Amino acid sequence: NRYCIIMAGGVGSRFWPISRRSTPKQFLDILGTGKSFIRHTYERFARIIPPENFLVVTNNSYKEQVLRHIPEIGERQVLGEPVGRNTAPCIAYAAWRLKTVNPDATMIVTPADHLILNEDEFRRAIVEAAEFAENRRAMMTIGIRPNRPDTGYGYIQVDNRSETDGSPIFKVKTFTEKPNLELARTFVESGEFFWNSGIFIWKTETILENFSAFLPDLQQTFGSIGAYYNTPQEQQHIERIYPECRNVSIDFGVMEKAHDVYVRCSDFGWSDIGTWGSLYQHSPKDEKGNVESRFCMLYDTEGCIVKTDTDKLTVIEGLKDYIVVDHKDVLMICPKANEQNIKKFIDDTKFKI
Ligand code: GDD
Ligand code: MG
To answer: CB of 288 within 8 A of CB of 145?
Structure first.
């Protein structure tokens, strides 16, 4: 009864210019492992979930790419969205589909684009969390010990005294999505907080109860899809209702408000490789601390990440802590410290590139 729901509709803009609207991060092999992020995600869960129990929710325009990266699944297992409305509608869509096909399902909801180093520990955490979600009808998250006050994550405060079944599972006291820097610092220093890894586990009926309590509009919108299941009008119906949905993440929309939330605290070498800076941190470096591609000559250059996919020779002298990316029709040169400006660069191209 366990299903894996892969959320793969993000546009991954922080890895521009390698990640583009047409081929976002989940379909790329940014770490040079030989497999895309979404392929790694599938293989990781395929050890515990049969192929027919996967659902991938993604934009209509990425459906074909999903099937190319995961040929083990059928077309009906890829749920296409006409527009991105963030993770709450994505999860509501999958939950209502599952309610129709298997009312007793457990959903393991995962992002498509994370790095996980210790897969044995990862599986242990997922299975324990699933058992807990099934026995207690709880909303489960997977928590990671934070090592910096990153404002891009959800912060989970645990109740250390909460009684569980002998595993590192705690009742969640508070859930704060993307706090400001000051708050994030306080959280990390207190030692009581974990990062939300973005992986959620719950029974379908549990999340549907929470939708009806906290996002009743979504509950109402998606409640209608069961009637169209497997009919010729099904996709048309989705195209009609999706644009009406609010843009809201599951974190702001449900997790911050829900009551019966528990966290399985884990340490399986997790990173969401969310930015060029985090790719830099996770990549092998030369003696000057540079991460470089094949055809590069670097002089008096330190702490840089240089990514080129051409066979053009790149020669650099005198750069410190920069990102240099030469990809197809774009060359970007930007200080590592300013990588948040990439969103602005994309805006300024008017999404033409
Ligand atoms: N299908 C679909 N539709 N998928 C989406 C959409 C959408 O509209 N928007 C985002 N996704 C997918 C992304 O592709 C990604 O795999 C996942 O959902 C999470 O979305 P992000 O946009 O990457 O979320 P985030 O990184 O800002 O925050 C979330 O993840 C953090 C950990 O990486 C939150 O859950 C945080 O609390 C968490 O700490
Ligand atoms: Mg993310």
So the answer is: no
